[in-house]
Amino acid sequence: MTPQEKLQKIRTELQHRFLERHALIDGALAALLASQHVLIIGPPGTAKSMLADELCRRITGAHYFQWLLTKFTTPEELFGAVSLKALEADDYRRVTDNKLPEAHIAFLDEVFKSSSSILNAILSIINERIFHNGKAAAAVPLLTLFGASNELPEDDELLALYDRFLLRFAVDYIQEDFRFLHMLQRGDVSRIHLSKKDTFPLQAQRPAERTTLTLDELRQLQTEAQAVTVPDAVLGVIAEVRRELRTQDILASDRRYHQSVGLLQAVACLDGRRSVTETDVFFLEHVLWKEPSEQAAVHSVIHGLIHGYEDEVQELLFQTRELRDYAERPWEDAEQRARAIIEAHTKIRNILTKVEEIHQHVQEVGRAIDKVERAKQEIQEIQGQLLARL
After folding, report:
1. Confidence (pLDDT) at 191
2. Are 43 and 197 in contact (CB under 8 A)?
């Protein structure tokens, strides 16, 4: 099985295990491929740490570190105790075995509750992949850090850490009843009582399959992701998204936009493609918001830029159909009928002019023209039918 096939299998297995988390799973896997970090915002009990732990189990040879931060958390808990032998040589160095500086994948719960001393060290680790240990600055093997929080940071000193999480997901408890019942089926009880009369029998659960990748295979996939082509048209869409979001006061740093290109390469690689498409840009709805309430606006802007022309053409097609129905309604005499057909034909001719302009623009920017051409063909057929009735 190739690394790409294993990646797809891992993706499917995680989707079966973690319900209503498809976007988060894709984000976590893309973050691994792009060596980026993920912030998960949501209440306790939404499988945030479980997903990070399960993902690390899929990478054989990878070290996993998990910790709950509080205002009382000490640097020793995250980075290791101070080496007494090093102190004898006047070197304030920590023993980092099994601590954050040795981890390939890490999960920090309540990540914004860290102290200033811990915050600065975390920033160096997740941004520069460096841990300043005594007199030396040591490279760390960290691939992806998952941070979790029940709330967004409010202190200005935490905004730098917040911005280092390229991917942001707001999660909640399972919403759909049938998925909730499916989750309950995985328990140890033999039956789930829905009411006094009805019961929901549990199916025998097979041991969960766990496909794994080696670290070398993951690095191979990372190399493949970096080789994914990013067409100029996609870069143009990203620039348009940025310009439109700025008009709505939704601002993201230049660093986030730059890193988002590598993320889109990873998203395409995750789908087994060698080129990024404009549709991949939709994944930036998990990148470009600061407040969860902004995510819908980001999605709307991306949809308008990528599929807005399709919506416009569809609306023009609806108008053409309405004009046809108007012209074909029963009229009192032939003169009124002819006048209605001529009026409809004139308006449809103007509609066709607009469709032609959209068609030309879509071709110039290299976007899909199938829907535009189908709509254009139907409008022309309607126009021909009306002319035949004069």
Report:
1. 35
2. no
- The helix-helix angle for 48-57 and 3-17 (nearest 10°) equals 150
pTM of the model: 0.78
Q: Report the C-alpha gap between 65 and 78 in whole angstroms.
A: 9
* Number of other CB atoms surrounding residue 119 within 10 Å: 17
**Under-50 pLDDT residues of the chain:** 188-207
- 342 and 327 in contact (C-beta within 8 Å)? no
Beta strands in the chain (DSSP E): 38-41, 59-60, 64-68, 105-109, 130-133, 136-139, 144-149, 167-170, 191-193, 199-201, 213-214
* Crossing angle for the helix pair 370-388 and 295-327, to the nearest 10 degrees: 20
209 exposure class (CB count in 10 Å sphere: 0-12, 13-18, 19+):
exposed
The neighbour count for residue 40, using CB atoms within 10 Å, is 27
**Alpha carbon of residue 88 to chain centroid:** 49
- Which tokens belong to 226? 């970096």
- For the chain, helix, strand, coil in percent to 5 are 60, 10, 30
Give CA–CA dist 14/20, Å, rounded. Answer: 11
pLDDT of residue 193: 36
What's the confidence (pLDDT) of residue 197?
38
Q: What is the dihedral of CA 158, 66, 27, 296, to 10 degrees?
A: -40
Pairing relationship of beta strands 167-170 and 38-41 according to DSSP bridges: parallel
Q: pLDDT at position 267, please?
A: 97
pLDDT of residue 194: 36
What per-residue confidence (pLDDT) applies to 255? 92
Question: What is the model's pLDDT at position 99?
Answer: 95
- What's the chain's length in residues? 390
DSSP string, 57-77: HTEET--EEEEE--TT--HHH
Give 132's strand partners.
137
User: Other C-beta atoms within 10 Å of 134: how many?
Assistant: 16
pLDDT in tens, 54-96: 888 899 989 999 999 998 999 999 999 988 887 777 778 899 9
Rg from Cα positions in the chain: 28
Cross-strand partners of 274? none
Q: Whole-angstrom Cα distance, residue 19 to residue 178? A: 10
Predicted confidence at residue 186, as pLDDT, reads 64
pLDDT of residue 192: 35
Reduced to 3 states, what is the DSSP secondary structure of residue 105? Answer: strand
